[in-house]
Amino acid sequence: MSISYLNKQVIDQIAAGEVVERPSHLVKELLENAIDAGSTKIEVRFDNGGRDILVQDNGRGINPKELALALDRHSTSKISEYEDIWNLSSYGFRGEALASISAVSDFELISRQPDSTVAHKIQSKFGEKSEVTTTQLPVGTLVRVSQLFENTPVRIKFLKTASYEHSLIKQVIKALAMINYRVEFKVFDGQKLVFQTPAAQSLSERAQWLFGNEKVFTTTKKADGFELEAVFMSPYDVEKNSKNIWVFVQNRWVQDKMIQSAVMEAFKNLLMHGEYPRVVVNINCPKDFVDINIHPAKSQVKFTDSQKVFRLVYHALEKALSTGPWKEVVDARKEWPSIASSTTQSQIEQGSTPITYSTQASFKDPQLFTAQFQKKVFPTPQMFADSMPLVATTTSDNASVVGPKKEITNVYWQQYQVVGQVDLTYIVCQGADKMVLVDQHAAHERVLFERILNQYRNGSIGIQKMLIPISLDFEAEQIELLLKHQEQLARIGIEWEQAGPASICIMGMPTEIKENAVIKLINQFVNEAEAVSTSYIFENRVKDFVATLACHSAIRAGQSLSHSEMEKLLADMDEYPLSSFCPHGRPVNLEFSFKYLEKEFGRIN
Asked: For the stretch 91-122, what's the b/e string if a residue is b when 16 or more beta carbons lie within 10 angstroms of its beta carbon?
């Protein structure tokens, strides 16, 4: 076979295959051009499975002398020198989009600049350009595409159903609308208006509009030239897939599994298996730290140090989530008015004592039962600790396990009055306008999880020494694995010694943890010890190990609790902002508004 140059038509079709795989990629390219032109309003129409598309904007327009040039390959206004590739301030730069699209469609480009009284038009039928003519159009640019891929029937064959292709187009538009929140978008699917986004003042405002929910939360972080902004919804608002984890790098929508993993890791212990959060992450970093030119459709990026980006996203989100911002807390430093309509004005004016509690033994306040809805404050006895034969209780720094009284400045759970217990499993509470059911096992599990995790991080885990050590038998190989990680296990409060070639004795364990929980964890650790080969991997698995301890030590469903024990549990929950979810992501509580109950009972319409 002899070597020869490909003809222009084949070259253009190959280029089109790289840049425009499917209609959604075409829409993305056209929208990016419109945004680069400084548009503040963009209208998009699509039909026929995305093979007919119209994009119109109010941007700066194209000089009529350059209309024909705009349809040539590698013609662009975005860069002029090689160095410009690494200092991009725009979306596009290769100059392939319009040429590629016009090569595989019946294409029309109309544009008018602000200082012109008429618009100019050029057409291309599958790569064959027409002359430039005059026409009418408001200031801006209009691109009309029809019969997409008509001259490449193989590509049509690989398109999916019209509804599927339309859903991909809408996803692309939402992504660009999300990050370009100052631009107004108007989108039509056929003749139907799908959505219209008003211009917003912030990323959170646009995310709030697109997520269709009143409450979104924002966190930002700046470090070493990196700027991160993340908008997220509460773990109650979840998806069944990852489609609402939106990742942007340098204001570009990208598909990055590493950043998605960082998001999921931050939400770990707040979501059940198969649940995904609603999150928007935008990262701006030094230009020499990221390569945005590794994919023809610019949908992927490559970082110089991906682990640094992972840690940035993970720590920023974890810190924001750790405050539980979705909970409507009450400031306990303020006077505490009654929430009952029957409470007198003098009671409201007097308020009550700031909320504090101690783990020392005390008694119930009998006045609780004489003023319905009136919140009373009282210390309550230590509870839920498993009764074990102990000889001493110590911590790594000789710190007190019980400690002095702790003042809670913001309360959530203690604002509810405990009514009783249902099925020996759920605590029934009432507030000003709703009834709340609290899963006692899930609630106590989260309390223990957070308590041990905090002590682990502070190096102050309380250890209860065993009067009678617990003996466990293993294979000799398993004993060797445990010996390699003896120090790591000690860091989470499990002290043990080798008692023989194939046995160990547990000498101490974290306070409030049951023997069965420690045995479960030791067996889990033996099965996973080979995978937990380094301290770094162990750190990543600590939450899983602590969750095992908490799960098997928490009070169980079917366990009777006294009134003061239930109130003490609510007080403990207020120590930890994430107490709305157990460590496995299950919700701790369900709420039923009084209005809902009245409607169900037919008291109101």
From this structure: bbbbbbbbbbbbbbbbbbbbbbbeeeeebbbb
What is the pLDDT, as a whole number, of residue 406?
Answer: 54
Distance between CA 366 and CA 491 in Å, rounded?
A: 43
The Cα-based distances of 373 to 327, 337, 432 in angstroms read: 20, 10, 8
Same domain, 87 and 154: yes
Per-residue H/E/C for 280-295: EEEEECCHHHEECCCC
Choose one of 162, 197, 232: the last residue of a domain: 197
Which of 321, 348, 370 is the endpoint of a domain? 321
Same domain, 115 and 159: yes
Residue 386 lies in a domain: no
What's the CA angle centered on 79, arms 74 and 85, to 5 degrees?
A: 100
The pLDDT value given to residue 340: 42
Residue 392 pLDDT: 43
Cβ neighbours of residue 537 under 8 Å, at least 6 residues apart?
531
Domain extent, residue 44, equals: 8-197
Span 110-120, average pLDDT: 95
Domain co-membership, 156 together with 225: no
Inside any domain, residue 264: yes
Confidence band (pLDDT; 50, 70, 90) for 2? Answer: low
In angstroms, what CA-CA distances link 209 with 45, 281, 282? 21, 16, 17
